[in-house]
Amino acid sequence: MLGLQGISAQELEAILEDAARYKRDVIGQSIKKSTLLRGKAFVNLFFEPSTRTRTSFELAGKYLGADVINVQGEVSSIAKGETLYDTARNIEAMGVDLLVVRHGASGVPAELKRYVKIPVVNAGDGAHEHPTQGLLDLMTVWERHKSWKDVHLVIVGDILHSRVARSDLWGFLAMGARVSLVAPPLWMPDWIDEGVTMTSDLLSALKTADVIQVLRIQKERWSMVGMPSPEEYRSRWGLTLASAACLPENAIILHPGPQNRGVEIDSEVVAHAASRILDQVENGVAVRMAVLTRLMEGHYEG
């Protein structure tokens, strides 16, 4: 599971059906335990800080009965000079069944897959993709709208550098949704397919949105030449109570976290009735249970 680009709607639906079943039959129970992956083991190899993604992969594995080991890149043998590829091959040699990788450089999980025979899951690589985030966003929208076809997804923020934006884009387009990208001109990419709307006018896009995905703005982006100040960004592209009032009645609000409250989203909006941010967190565990099971049981390779 290296990315959502190129994955068929049928495959995405199959993963999400599994996720819905795990949410109902395992996560929704008082005793959250399954034996589906008993005797299996996987490693979370993370080179970037993470709370939601790493914890949800760990919980997903444990709920399924697998053994889970967390390895932080900065305290692994890589810090002593070992190559990343040697680390991955050594982990594989220990009998591990799957490797979950997060890295700040785009393409690292795909490159590692060339060196190991076990499945590799991309938990976010640079500005490339974050496929399980895209899957959990699809699941969250389905729970609200019971469809993806003709749903209008608006993604606002640093589109150029966002792996979440890419995975959402490919996933929602595959399922028949309409996608609009909203960003300051400096953060608007040139890799978008025809048919995707690009604009810097947030209020106009919100008026027809069924889903608004608000991207986290990383602090280092403010030093880019030509960028507005955080205050100006909030006034033009932040989701405030005033701008959220432009959303249609049945629209929902998403954010991949962590939130920079008072910049790209206000605290009042996080607590808004339309917010499905905690649903995203819950669905992240279910989606990762589905991905882990399908990969370790040999049902999926993509």
What does this structure look like?
This protein is α/β, with parallel strands linked by helices. It folds into 2 domains: 137 residues, Rossmann fold (3-Layer(aba) Sandwich); 149 residues, Rossmann fold (3-Layer(aba) Sandwich), CATH 3.40.50. It is built from 11 helices and 9 strands. The strands form 2 sheets. The chain has a 5-stranded parallel sheet. A 4-stranded parallel sheet has the order 2-1-3-4, sandwiched between helices. Helix 2 links the parallel strand 1 and strand 2. It is globular, with a radius of gyration of 19 Å. The N and C termini lie close together (5 Å). The model has no long low-confidence stretch (mean pLDDT 91).
Element order: H for helix, E for strand = HEHEHEHEHEHEEHEHHEHH
User: Which CATH class of the largest domain?
Assistant: Alpha Beta
Poorly predicted segments: none
Rg over CA atoms: 19 Å
**CATH level-four homologous superfamily name of the largest domain:** Aspartate/ornithine carbamoyltransferase
Main sheet: strand order: 7-6-5-8-9
Tally of DSSP helical segments: 11
Name the beta content range. 5-15%
CATH architecture of the largest domain: 3-Layer(aba) Sandwich
Can you tell me the CATH topology of the largest domain? Answer: Rossmann fold
**Fraction of helical residues:** 25-40%
Largest sheet properties: 5 strands, parallel
> How many distinct folded domains?
2
Q: How many β-strand stretches?
A: 9
What integer is the average pLDDT? 91
Distance between the termini: 5 Å
Instruction: Based on Cα principal axes, name the global outline.
Output: globular
